[in-house]
Amino acid sequence: MTELCDLTGSALSAKLASGAVSAVEIVGSSLDRIEAVDDDLHAFLTPTPQLARERAEELDVYRASGAPLSPVAGVPIALKDVLATNGIRTTCGSRILEGYVPPYDCTAWTRLSGDGAVLVGKTNCDEFAMGSSNENSAYGPVHNPWDLSRVPGGSSGGSAAAVAAGAAVWALGTDTGGSVRQPASLCGVVGLKPTYGLISRYGLIAFASSLDTVGTFTRSVRDAATLLSVLGGNDPRDATSLDGEPQDYAAGLDRGVAGMRVGVVAEAFGQGVEPGVAASVRAAIDRLERLGASVGEAHLPHAEYALSAYYLIAPSEASSNLARYDGVRYGFRAPGEHADSVEMMFATRGQGFGPEVKRRIMLGTYALSAGYYEAYYGQAQKVRTLIIRDYAAAFDAFDVLVSPTSPTTAFPIGAKADDPMAMYLNDIFTIPANLAGVPAISVPCGVDDAGLPVGLQLTAPVLGERTLLRAASAFEADLGLEFRPPLLAA
Amino acid sequence: MPVEIDIEHVARLARIDLTDEEEATLRAQLGVILEHAARVGEVAAADIPPTSYAVPRANVFREDEPEPSLPVEEALRNAPERDGDRFKVPRIAETTA
Fold it and tell me: Which of A108, A171, A328, B21 could be A159's S-S partner, Cβ–Cβ 3.0 to 4.6 Å?
């Protein structure tokens, strides 16, 4: 049965504005759903039901005064647990931040909260956003609502699963190499990674600063546009934040794709792409063509080196960013007596970080160490230049590029856990956009033979969000997919 | 060929205690990952400039306006150990007799 929490944010916002429902009813629906499904999903690390109810009551009082409401007001939203929330535990899925309660809000939440969005909880994720399956959370994995024995993708797996299951109407995640788009694809929801710097990173606990991007999970492209309209725009607290005021990304969303030049990334249909994924994405491309887009073949000749570059750049930046976890100012400190502070730091980091985080810190430390810097990090940064040039050339000929989001649908929990290289290959189609800073979105385009969702990735040039969202919206509207995970069938 | 790494040296640089088992696993895994990653050297020619930020910005300044700083209690709230208004840590220097 469809409850309020199964509706889109724009539908809820309209009901709220007309007085058909109250914020308390909407938020109650979402909280009931969390209660009903989260024992199975484990999407939340810290649900915030009491705060949510109080917030909804305040909003209803405000609404009764007749004051105009933002389109995000009263919409239940979940935040990935790498986004700092004042007074609410923020763990990054790590033991090393187990009891950490930030004294400040990230800018993304400050903006949403200021407009009346209602936080229903902090979501589970791979430790420090490092992973593609959510199996690297120190607090246990998230289960995919489409098949509980399978992963939801990662690293924002909790956010993706929560939105797919109606436990939140919207969620924020972060995307450093695909951590919004890949779980969106595997959970059958819309995942948007905007242009690097469009949404402030202030209060996003850093993994790889030159790649980290706040992104959104929604059940419609319009909702993604609505959220971006509130989240975007310059923030003086983030020196990498781009200039410009917030814009209305929902305007012109329905203008269609007639005449739009769509480039199919030829390199993204090679080895490793499951037949069910390829078939679904090919059908999606045919659909775009029927809708009036002119479709051609695009090339990103250096994309095959993107994974190599990423696994040098991201760990290098992580090894530096994660140096701050030393057991001194916040978070976990190894118990027992320590001969000196340095010994305490070694023990704290050895006990506080999980295997994947250690692997990446070690990888980055090595890549930046004396004698190896030029061969690894230096070369990887040159590959980054080549990938940016590839996109520039492709966008001379095309308005948007399309490919599968992920080479596979959701895989069983444990299937790739012991093979880091196999796990890293999940992000092979998403990583290039992070290296080039360009916006990309994953929209559901069908299911494979096993009934698991497939995602179509669209990519646009830097600050090409309007074109990106317009193409995604036209596709979504024509496909008219009304699908719900089997978890909710009962 | 997997890359050979002095894993103990890297762990010292990273300030992480690793068990013998972790060292063995990481030595093997990092060797394979780096073998793959080293492919960046195949295409990165000398005349290609490096990119550190894809959407670069330079000289980002804000107005120099004083703002209240975090209250001491707030700053210390998450401290593993404190002593009055200070973070307390194990000794950081050799004591002289």
Answer: A171
